[in-house]
Amino acid sequence: MMENRVELSFLFLVFVLLFSTCRTVYYMSENQHITLKESSFDNAEIFFKKRKIPHSIKRAFKSVSDQKLRLANSGEKYLATDVRNNPFLPTRRLIFLVRTSDYYILFYEHGGGGKHYHCLLFRKDSNKKYEVMSIGINMNIKSYKELKESLIKGEYFIISENSCRY
Question: Model-level pTM?
Answer without folding.
Answer: 0.73
